[in-house]
UniProtKB/TrEMBL annotation:
Recorded family membership: Belongs to the short-chain dehydrogenases/reductases (SDR) family.
Entry-linked SUPFAM superfamilies: NAD(P)-binding Rossmann-fold domains
InterPro entries: NAD(P)-bd_dom_sf (IPR036291), SDR (IPR050259), SDR_fam (IPR002347)
Protein name, per record: SDR family oxidoreductase
Highest classification ranks of the organism: Bacteria, Pseudomonadati, Pseudomonadota, Alphaproteobacteria, Sphingomonadales
Length: 262
């Protein structure tokens, strides 16, 4: 199935690993010209080279911090008029006790998870509106819809982001510019593998055992964590030509960990 984005320019912030990398890979497979940003240069370059080899797509690495003014300027200089904007970032630390969250952690989470994507949208939306085509997908977190103390820093800022993006989506929809959010639960990302790998070592267990225990404790109906490439596939779907009538949505991808009719 041709999803209609061949030759489109796609900017993926935070795309060197995890769901961001999977999003870049999925879009590259569909023939988009890819610009991937991240802060760690060696991992970024390696990811871009791997994606280019596998897909034959044009994949450009841009090493920059997308939460800083300087980083945004560098990124938008490399890709000034993207047709597609995908935003994600390394998640903030888990917060098992709300009293231990510092002001510095709040400021960092707000800058990275809320203000950065808002500023990028503000920079690129006018061009999308003028060209009468645009797709924006924010990869957020299921905690934006279903709050949990351990995801305070991630869930609260991205709940605000979802509110903002849904509001703005109503303004630009008439110009064939659609904005949607993905709210993933637990997936085998680099962050999760590092965190749960450390837990496994501390407990004298395997990574798989610790993941299984977490899935049981949090009542994940699928009884496992998800694959980041599955999230990437949904990014491609929301960026497709066929998604022109889907806007202002926040899709939960959590293996049935949460319960909601709508």
């Amino acid at each position: 199935m041709d999803i209609g984005i061949r030759g489109r320019k796609a900017l993926i912030n935070g795309g060197s690993a995890g769901m961001g990398r999977s999003a870049a890979l999925a879009l590259a497979r569909e023939g988009a010209d890819i610009f991937v940003t991240a802060r760690t240069e060696d991992r970024l370059v390696a990811a871009c080279e791997e994606i280019a080899r596998e897909t034959g797509a044009s994949v450009t690495p841009v090493c920059a911090d997308h939460s800083s003014d300087e980083g945004r300027q560098r990124i938008l200089a490399a890709c000034p008029d993207p047709d597609i904007l995908v935003g994600t970032c390394a998640p903030p630390p888990m917060t098992p006790d709300y009293r231990d969250v510092t002001d510095e952690q709040w400021r960092s989470a707000i800058d990275i998870s809320l203000l950065s994507p808002i500023r990028f949208m503000r920079e690129v939306l006018d061009g999308m509106v003028e060209r009468k085509w645009g797709r924006i997908v924010n990869i957020a977190t299921v905690a934006a819809k279903y709050p949990a103390e351990i995801r305070l820093l991630s869930g609260s800022t991205r709940a605000a982001l979802a509110n903002y993006t849904v509001a703005i989506s109503k303004v630009v929809a008439k110009h064939n510019v659609v904005i949607n959010n993905l709210l993933p639960g637990m997936h085998h990302s680099a962050f999760v593998e590092k965190q749960f790998g450390e837990r496994a070592v501390a407990a004298g267990k395997t990574y798989d055992e610790v993941v299984q225990e977490f899935a049981q404790d949090w009542r994940i109906a699928a009884e496992r964590f998800g694959d980041c490439d599955d999230v990437g596939a949904f990014v491609a779907m929301f960026c497709s030509e066929q998604a022109n009538y889907i806007t202002g949505q926040s899709l939960v991808i959590d293996g049935g960990a949460t319960t909601s009719v709508f």
